[in-house]
Amino acid sequence: MSINSFGHLFRVTTWGESHGPALGATVDGCPPGVPIDEAGLQHWLDRRKPGQNKYTTQRREPDQVRILSGVFEGQTTGTPIQLMIENTDQRSKDYSDIKDKFRPGHADITYWQKYGIRDYRGGGRSSARETAARVAAGGLARAVLATLLPELRITGYMVQIGPHRIDRARFDAAQIEENPFWVPDAQAATDWAEYLDGLRKSGNSVGAMIEVTASGLPAGLGAPVYGKLDTDLASAMMSINAVKGVEIGEGMAAAELTGEANADEIFMGEDGNPVYSSNHAGGILGGISTGQDIIVRFAVKPTSSILKPRQTITRAGEATEIITKGRHDPCVGIRAVPVAEAMMACVLLDHYLLHRGQIGHNRGAIG
Amino acid sequence: MSINSFGHLFRVTTWGESHGPALGATVDGCPPGVPIDEAGLQHWLDRRKPGQNKYTTQRREPDQVRILSGVFEGQTTGTPIQLMIENTDQRSKDYSDIKDKFRPGHADITYWQKYGIRDYRGGGRSSARETAARVAAGGLARAVLATLLPELRITGYMVQIGPHRIDRARFDAAQIEENPFWVPDAQAATDWAEYLDGLRKSGNSVGAMIEVTASGLPAGLGAPVYGKLDTDLASAMMSINAVKGVEIGEGMAAAELTGEANADEIFMGEDGNPVYSSNHAGGILGGISTGQDIIVRFAVKPTSSILKPRQTITRAGEATEIITKGRHDPCVGIRAVPVAEAMMACVLLDHYLLHRGQIGHNRGAIG
Amino acid sequence: MSINSFGHLFRVTTWGESHGPALGATVDGCPPGVPIDEAGLQHWLDRRKPGQNKYTTQRREPDQVRILSGVFEGQTTGTPIQLMIENTDQRSKDYSDIKDKFRPGHADITYWQKYGIRDYRGGGRSSARETAARVAAGGLARAVLATLLPELRITGYMVQIGPHRIDRARFDAAQIEENPFWVPDAQAATDWAEYLDGLRKSGNSVGAMIEVTASGLPAGLGAPVYGKLDTDLASAMMSINAVKGVEIGEGMAAAELTGEANADEIFMGEDGNPVYSSNHAGGILGGISTGQDIIVRFAVKPTSSILKPRQTITRAGEATEIITKGRHDPCVGIRAVPVAEAMMACVLLDHYLLHRGQIGHNRGAIG
Amino acid sequence: MSINSFGHLFRVTTWGESHGPALGATVDGCPPGVPIDEAGLQHWLDRRKPGQNKYTTQRREPDQVRILSGVFEGQTTGTPIQLMIENTDQRSKDYSDIKDKFRPGHADITYWQKYGIRDYRGGGRSSARETAARVAAGGLARAVLATLLPELRITGYMVQIGPHRIDRARFDAAQIEENPFWVPDAQAATDWAEYLDGLRKSGNSVGAMIEVTASGLPAGLGAPVYGKLDTDLASAMMSINAVKGVEIGEGMAAAELTGEANADEIFMGEDGNPVYSSNHAGGILGGISTGQDIIVRFAVKPTSSILKPRQTITRAGEATEIITKGRHDPCVGIRAVPVAEAMMACVLLDHYLLHRGQIGHNRGAIG
C-alpha cells in the first residue's frame, strides 16, 4: 500500500516521475455527462507551467495533457479518466553529482532509506513535477463543479514571501492574475520582484504562505469525524511538496483568542439563509461547511536546492559538500498556488458528491 | 459514507454520542499476540478524564473502558477489538435552551443543515466526548508500539494558552505530568493557573497551542504522496474537535525562512546512522521519517460555550441570544493533549505496519 | 489490515467472538432520518436465532440486540450505529478436547498458523455466531430500504439439502415461513425433516444450497468493473461461513448453454419499461441491474463438527482422533438463509446509495 | 465512486475503453526492488492476445504494453506503475447498427440506464478488452511473486465447453500450452476443435468452465472475515466479463456431501508440515490458506454476440431485431484463462503482502 490516491468518491491516483516517459492522473468516480476536452484542462496546466518567468524553474515543457479514456464525444462517461502528460524535456544531463549524494531538505535520503532504490533524476517521484498531474485532475474537478455548483469560485493567492506579507487593506483580487506571484496587491508584486531578484542572484531561496478560498459553497458539506472538510483540506494541502503547515480560518492564531472574540454570531440573512457576524471559523464548523467562504492557508518551506554549499553525506556514508545547480525555483511557493486551487477543487467536489448521495441532504431547513 | 474511521492498516472506527448509552472504538488490524488489558487502557483514559481539576469540565464520569472482543487470555488475537465506554453521567437536565437554538461556534447549525436531525444533548456526535474513544484506541496502539518499537516515546504538552507562550529556555519535560496544563515549564504552570482563574470567573474561554513529539522512530516510515507521514498527522490532528491549524517542524514560520537558514545539513553519526545539524523539517522529508524527532503543533480554538451572551438564531429562523451554561472547559486545549498523543500513537503504528509489510523495508543502508 | 468490514458507502464492520462478552456490528454511512428501533431489528435476529427447532444448534441465547449509538428519538442521525448482542450462554464447558486439537474442516489450524493464537472456545472469531451481527446490520439495511425502495422484496430459501432438491414445479413462496428449512415446497419440508432426522441420529451432517432473490430493484445499480453488483454479491455470500460456491442467474450451468439459448431478448413492456423474454442473467448485465429479479445461489458445505471420529493432529504435531460433541447444526445451511438475506440487503442498499450520489442517475431513459 | 480498483495493498486500477486511444492499469503498492521489464510483461499479454487462432476474435492488435512509471534501471521503485496498451486496431467501422440498439446479453442497456451515455464502440468500458490491462497487472504480480514465493505455480485451464467436460483421468498438465483451448487433455482438444468449428459456422456460441489452481502457497494467507482468500478470489473471478458462477474446492457440489465425506483429515507430513487426506476445501479453511493447492473454478456464459437474429429494442423504445456481426469469439471462455491466472496472481500477491506486514506471521508453528 503506497497510497498514491486521494478522495473518497472522486478518487484521484497520480503516477509518474520527474524524468520518466510520462506522468498523469487516473481519476475514478467522475460523474457522467460532463462536457470536457483537452483544451479546457490545458488552461489550468498552463497556469502552473514552469519557465514562464524568471521566478520559476527554467525547465521548459509544454506540459500537454492528453485524455486517454473516460470521455466520449466530448462528455465524461462515468468510467475512469486517464490524464497523461508526457515528459519532453528529460535532459540527458549529468546526474553524477546527486546520484550518490543526499541533497539536504530533499527526500533523497528518506526515499533511499525506505525503498533501497530511488530514481535520482530530478527527484523522481518526490519531484514537484508530480503536481502537474494534480492540476490536470483539478481542472477536471472544476469542469464538474461548473455544472453542479456554478456559483462556486476557488481562488488562490500568495499572502507572504519570506518576511514580506501582503497588506490586507490593499487586497485587490483583480491583481492576482496580473503578476507572476498571484499576489492580490500591486505594490507587493513590485516589492517582491525586487526581493526575489536579490535572492536569486545570491543563490538563495525563500518560503511563502498561500491562501486559498472558496465562495459559493453550500452549507452541509463535510463528513465528521475523520473525513471532516477541514481534515481533508489539511491533508490535501499538507500532501503538496514542501508544505509545513496548514490553517483554517483563524488558524494558529486561534490559540491567542478568547471565546468572546472568536465567536461568529449567527443572524438570519435577508434571503432566508443564516449569515454570520464574522468568519473566524473559515467557513467550517464541526467539519461541515457553514455556507460562508472556506479559508485555508498553508506555508511552503524555501526551495531546498540552493547554490550555497551545504554539508551532506554520500550513500557510502562519506561526508561531502553539495551545491544544487539546475533549474530551480527560488520560491517553490509561487507554483504551489495553482496546485492548491486544484486540490481545493478536488476536495470540494468529492465532498459534494458525498453530500448528494445522502438522503434528503441539506434537508435541515431553517426558518 | 460518513467516514468515522481513520488509519490504513491499524484502522480505528469511533462511534457514540455524548449522551447516548455508550461510545467506543472498533479497532481492526491490531496485530496478534500483544499483551493488553483493561487496566492498561484505563491508564490513558484517566489522563483525559474530565472533572479532575477546575480547569476542565466538571462532568464527572469514570470513563471506564471495557474490552468486548479481540483479546483472549490477555493477548490480542488479530481479530477486531471493541473498546466500549458507557456514559454514566447522562444528567436528565433540561436541554430546552439549546434544543432549538444553534450555539455559535458549535456544530449545531451545520449538523442540522447536513442531516436534518441532531442529537442536541451535549453536542451529540460532535461533542469532544468522542475523543475518549480515541484515547482508548491510542492506548491500544501504545501497547502494540511498546512491543514493536520499545524506544519510541510520544510526548504531548501545551506551549501556549491565549497570549502566554512557554519559555523554551525553561523547557523541563519532567514538569509535564506535574501540573494540570501538561506544560513543561513550572513558572508557566503557575502563571497560567492565575490567568485561567480570571478567565473562568469572567465566563470567558481561551485558545491554546499543543506540541506533540515522538522520539525513537526509525527512518523510512511514510507513504508518499497522499499518505505521507505529515499528511496523515495533519489529518489526525485537524480531526480533533476545535483544532484550526497544524504544523510540522518549522510549520507556518517556514514561510519566513531562506533556504540557507532552513537547511538541515546531514552528517554521519558515531553509531553509523545519519545525524542532522538541525530539525527544521520536524523529522519528515518528502513525507518519510528521517529518524529525527517528529514534531507536530496544532492550535485549538477557545471553547465556544461561554457565559457571555451571544447572538444566534433558532431553528425557526428567529433571532435570539444564548448563554451556554453547563459544565464546560475554559480551555478545551488542555484536554486535547492526551487526545493528540493518542492520535500520534495510532498514526505512527499504522505507518510502522505499512512499512513492515514492504519487501526489504529499511533496506537502503547508508555507509 | 484484517478486513472485518464490507460495503462502500453503507459500511459494516462486525466484531466479536463466539464466547466473548459480546459481538456486534458498527455501521457507518447509514442515512439519517430513518425510523429504527431495537424491536424492528430483533425481528430479524429471531429468525436466525439458534435452538428454535431440532435441526439447528441447541445453543439457546436470546440474541437480544441493543442500539448503542446513532439513533435519536427513534430515528437514525447519520452517525455510526453500534449494534451489540451480548453473549449470554457462554457455558463454562470443558474445552480441553479442542484446545490443542485442530478440528478437520474448521479454521482451527489456519487461525493458528496465521495468528499464532486463537480463541478456541466455540471457534472464536471463525464461529458462525458472527453472522448474528450481519443479521442485525441487515435488519438496519432493510429499514433504510423500506423508506427508499418500498417495492423491494428480498427472499431467501433453501433449494437443496444433500441429494434432495426442490421441485420447481411445486414452488410456493407462501411455504417458506411455514417450515424449519425455509423451503418453498411443502412436500420437500416433510421429506427433508425425515432425511435430517436420520442424519442427526447417525451423527453426520450435510450440505445445502440456498437461493436468494430480490424483486423490485430498479435498473442501473452496480459499479463496474470491480464493484459490479454480482461481484459484490459473490463476495458477500462467499464471506459467509462454510460457503463454497456462488452463482448468479444460470450460474455454473451457463457453461453448458449456447448463445442462442442463453439470450434474454428485450422488449418494451406496457408500462414503458424494458422487459425480457427470460432471466438467464439473474438480473445483472455488465455488473449493473436490469430491473429484473436478482437471483443468487450459493452452496454451503456440511457442518464439519460431526460425531463420526476423524483423524487429526494436535498443536504438538501428534496424530489423534476427534469427535466433535457439542451443540451443532446437522446442516449449517439452514441458518444461512436469514444471513444471506441480510447480506443481500446490505449490498443492495450500498449500491443504491452509490447510485443516488451520481449525477442524473437513471437518466438514460428509454423510449 | 465507480470502483475500477481491486486489491488491498497491491492495488490495481484499470482504465480505458475498447476503442479509445489506450487502456491500461495503474498499479499502486508494488514492492520496490523487483526486476521487471516490458518484455517480461509482454509474454503474458501475448498469451491472451486475440486473433491467434480461429477460435478467438479476429481483431488483430499487437497489445504492446509500455511501462510509463515506477520502474528505474530495470527495477520497481515502490512508486505507482503505469502500464499502458495503445489501441491500434480501432477500425473506423460503421457502428450505426449498434449505436442505438441494445445488444441482448451485453451491458449496452444497463450502461445506458446507469450513465445516460455510453461509448458504444465495441462495448466501450464493458468490453472484454479491459482484461488486457488485468493481464498486464497480473504479469507484474507474477514478477513480484517470483521473488517472494519462487515455489508458487499458478495454472489455469478449461475443464468444460458446452456439454463437453474433460476426463479427469486423462488430465495432463503438459497439454495445456499445446492447444488453443488450454485444455489439459489431448483428446478433448481434438474433440472441442471439431465442436467449436460447427458452432462457429452456425453463428452460435457456447459457455465454458475454467479451473485455476495455485500450488506452493504457504499456509496462513487470508484476512477473515470479509477479506477471506476465497471471498477475494470469488470477487476477482466474478468481476471478469461474462462470469456467472465461482466455486472453491468442492464448490456447488458441497451441497450434496455429508460431513463425513467432506472431511479433509489432517496428518503430519514427513517434512514436519501438516498434510491432508483430501482437498475438498480447495486449500482454504475459514478464509485462510492451508498450504494445499488453491482450487477455483468459474463458469463463463456463451458469447452474447451471435449471428442468430435476436429481438431487442432501440433507445427510442422501438422493437427491432439484431444480428451482431463483427470479430467475436465463439467461446469467450477461452481467453478468460490467462485473465483468471492474472487475477489469481494479483489476489495471492495482495494477500501475501497483507500477511507479511503482520507481527510474527506464520508464527503458529505446529509440532
TrEMBL record, chains A, B, C, D:
Cofactor note: Reduced FMN (FMNH(2)).
Residues that, per the record, bind NADP(+): 48, 54
Catalyzed reactions: 5-O-(1-carboxyvinyl)-3-phosphoshikimate = chorismate + phosphate
Keyword Flavoprotein: yes
Top EC class for this record: lyase
One cellular component term from this protein's GO annotations in UniProt: cytosol
GO biological process, one term: aromatic amino acid family biosynthetic process
Cofactor(s), by name: FMNH2
Binding site for FMN: 125-127, 241-242, 286, 301-305, 327
Keyword Transcription found: no
A GO molecular function held by the record: chorismate synthase activity
PANTHER family: CHORISMATE SYNTHASE
Subunit composition and interactions: Homotetramer.
Function: This reaction introduces a second double bond into the aromatic ring system.
Protein name: Chorismate synthase
Native species: Pontibaca salina
Gene: aroC
